[in-house]
TrEMBL record:
Residues of the EAL domain: 24-277
Protein name: EAL domain-containing protein
Classification lineage: Bacteria, Pseudomonadati, Pseudomonadota, Alphaproteobacteria, Sphingomonadales
Coiled coil segments of this chain: none
Length: 283
């Protein structure tokens, strides 16, 4: 699968040689066409339940395989689209694809969930709520099948509005994950207040876990804290078997990372589930 190779070899844009402004404008101008033509597509990375060793969900990660430039780093074009008020286009495309994926996945794994990333600016107005309502209705999937991932800084900005929107989504039953946890500046007060169902620990805390005693202490107490607040814990960026064993032993609920599975197209993700396999704990 060519698509399974996504995630490596991004072309890094160099503003010094190509002109940041030109690059930005040309990307924006091509956005609609790229969505229509299939250059923009959605990769899925599996989420593994560490207790049952089964796949329980997947994260939707947008991809842009440009006709001439090749794969464009998603963090880069997402930021550009966001800055120019075009992120809604991407989000509604990803939500649509993700809703179909989770509907298909639920034929094999009844409680399967799909996670969709939401940008900070989208917590300042109701557009995302309307999108979610529409997609749940159109695909006839339960709110519980969808998790929205929001970074801690995003959920803290525009406090009043973001908080109200997130609460409304949670009341519908949509899951809410605090993404890249541990890299921002969330306070304990914030953690207590935000209606999240999941805490997603940033991959920098997974990278040296197996060998670093301090990271282990931080991880242990983070898992305990999240559980005490009624949240599930996901750790992203698991690249080694040792990290996975250790997290399972610490009572971490869910793992995600290259060692478990790389982001790949929807068909590849569905193949992992059919029939539901127990993921082998092998190095
Ligand atoms: P994120 O939401 O924190 O997604 C996790 C990133 O870590 C993904 O990068 C994924 O490919 C990568 N990753 C997963 N496992 C491993 C691992 O074991 N090791 C390492 N080194 N990396 C791993 P990706 O796909 O490049 O996405 C980057 C960021 O772009 C995402 O970070 C998210 O913030 C944003 N993004 C991606 N898709 C969307 C989208 O549809 N909407 C919005 N708003 N943002 C998106
Ligand atoms: Mg994410
Ligand atoms: Mg993350
Ligand atoms: Mg990230």
């Amino acid at each position: 699968h060519a698509a399974s190779q996504q995630g490596v070899g991004w072309k890094v844009h160099d503003p010094a040689t190509s002109g940041a402004k030109e690059w930005t404008l040309s990307l924006l101008g091509e956005l609609d066409q790229a969505i229509q033509s299939g250059q923009i597509w959605v990769a899925y990375q599996p989420k593994l339940d560490l207790a049952t060793r089964t796949f329980v969900g997947a994260e939707a990660l947008v991809r842009w395989t440009h006709a001439t430039r090749g794969p464009i780093n998603p963090a880069e074009f997402v930021e550009v689209a966001d800055r120019h008020g075009r992120i809604g286009k991407i989000t509604s495309f990803v939500l649509e694809d993700a809703a179909q994926l989770v509907k298909d996945a639920r034929q094999w794994v009844p409680n399967f969930t799909v996670s969709v990333n939401i940008s900070p600016s989208q917590l300042t107005n109701r557009e995302v709520i309307d999108m979610v309502d529409a997609v749940l209705l159109r695909h006839d999937i339960p709110a519980e099948s969808l998790i929205l991932e929001v970074t801690e800084s995003a959920a803290m900005a525009e406090e009043g509005t973001a908080q109200a929107l997130l609460e409304e989504l949670r009341e519908k039953g949509v899951g809410l994950s605090i993404d890249d946890y541990g890299t921002g500046m969330s306070t304990l007060e914030y953690l207590r207040r935000i209606p999240a169902s999941e805490l997603k620990v940033d991959r920098r805390f997974a990278s040296a876990l197996a060998t670093n005693a301090q990271d282990q202490a931080v991880m242990r107490s983070t898992i305990e804290l999240a559980h005490a607040l009624g949240m599930k814990v996901v750790v992203e960026g698991i690249e080694q078997a040792e990290t996975l064993y250790m997290l399972a032993g610490m009572g971490c609920d869910i793992g995600q990372g290259y060692h478990i599975g790389r982001p790949a197209d929807g068909t590849s993700l569905l193949e992992l589930l059919e029939p539901q396999k127990h993921w082998a704990f092998t190095g």
